[in-house]
Amino acid sequence: MSKPDGSPRLSRFRGLRGRVMAAFVLGASVVAVVLAGSVYGISTSYMESQRVRTVERAVGVHAELLRLRLDDPRISGEQALDALHLPTGYIAILHRDRRWSAVGVDDGFAPLTPPVIDTADAIPSTATRVRLGDQPYLRVWSEVENGSVLYEFAPLRELEANLHMLRTILLACAVLAVAVAAALGAWAAQRTLSPLRQVAAAASRIASGEHDLRLPRAADEDLATTVEAFNAMVDSLQRRIERERRLVSDLSHELRTPLTTLTTTATVLAGHRDELSERPKAALGLLVEETSHLRGLLDDMLALARAEAGIHRSDLSPLSLAELLTHLLAGRDTSPELLDVRDPGMVRGRRMELERALVNLLANADRHGGGLTGVTVDRDGADVKVVVDDAGPGVAPEDRGRIFDRFVTVSRATAGTGIGLALVAETVAGHDGTLRCTERPGGGARFVLTIPACDDVRHEIANKRAEPLQ
């Protein structure tokens, strides 16, 4: 059942399954980020260092070539630079005798002022990233001779394109890893929660009456303890139910006999009422009344105990609630017009228990509701619905839930055991049905009883009736 502020789907992901999936996704995300960052950092450092070393070696070689060519006074700086045959995209600038010579640049290129260098220092400069226009370059310089300096600008577009591709690939791999982790998390949650679902299904079947059902032994040591504890709990529950059944049987035997004797004695004494004086007559009247009330209370308590203990819980048979109500109303000498059968749907139930429950509902309408005004049998989706209306004052909204508890009597004007409606509720629950109390339009109380229909039974009966005799 979902929370008020969330849908059932969202509440499902807030549970154990969601936490398992979140753990997998979080772990995969952390690992993916660490690995992607490490791979990108190492790859970037390696590729840039390789690029720097390549450019530095090239500028050193080019400086030596220029030194040899510039020994010839007939060769100008531009001619010496052209003879280097630089790769595409490279820029070479020679600063010699306060003059600038450049190759690989546009006509509008204005080189930066070269840094002040110590002509006695022949060590090449550290490579530096610069931007010429909107393009990235790696600038390296080296002294040629007599204060002449060679500047080379190596393009970094290819390197940055490779790094961009590497970032994209790593990001895609990280997303894929998280997606795979989510799938693995869902699978792991499914496998992890499967034993819990089996336990829940077994518990539901046991609650519905299959008291002999047990969970099979588990090969997993972690689950074996849970399975053994569950089976031990069910064994204890079954033993308790058996004790309750024996108690019900003992009570039925021990209490019925003396109560029958007491009732019979009171009846015999009532036959000689005229021979008694006034005070013994009054006492006899109270005795007859109380023994009758005690007998009804005992019958209701025994029936309720049997229903709660699940005695004869499995002998279900198809029956029609409409036919059952027709029989009950005919036995009560009630007008048949009170019964309105709109759909005589079939249900699976125990005839004696359902008959007693319906008798209690009808008796409640007569005793506490000012008389029965109508009974309706209809379909309500997958259920067969029985509606019982009375002409009484109705039931207050705050009492409509608790009147199905034991020993609760809302009306003090009429006598009752306070167990009749509790027995009806227990019987309906034992048939997987529902029972509720509402207000009847026009005044009075309305009791709505629903029991799951079994259309397959109705169809089987209809087919059998349609088959020709052999």
Automatic annotation (TrEMBL):
Q: Which Pfam families match?
A: HAMP, HATPase_c, HisKA
**Bilayer-crossing regions:** 20-43, 169-189
Task: Provide the primary localization.
Answer: membrane
Q: Where in the cell is it found?
A: Cell membrane
Query: What name does the UniProt record give this protein?
Result: histidine kinase
Molecular-function GO terms, alphabetical: kinase activity
Q: Which InterPro entries match?
A: HAMP_dom, HATPase_C_sf, HATPase_dom, His_kinase_dom, HisK_dim/P_dom, HisK_dim/P_sf, Sig_transdc_His_kin-like_C, TCS_sensor_his_kinase
Q: Which residues form a coiled coil?
A: 227-254
Domain (HAMP) spans 190-242
The highest taxon in the source lineage is Bacteria
The record ties this protein, via SUPFAM superfamilies, to: ATPase domain of HSP90 chaperone/DNA topoisomerase II/histidine kinase, HAMP domain-like, Homodimeric domain of signal transducing histidine kinase
Per its record, the protein catalyses: ATP + protein L-histidine = ADP + protein N-phospho-L-histidine
Enzyme Commission number: 2.7.13.3
Which keywords does UniProt give here?
A: Coiled coil, Kinase, Membrane, Phosphoprotein, Transferase, Transmembrane, Transmembrane helix, Two-component regulatory system
Location of the Histidine kinase domain: 250-455
Which EC main class describes this enzyme? Answer: transferase
Kindly indicate whether the keyword Cytoplasm belongs to this entry: no
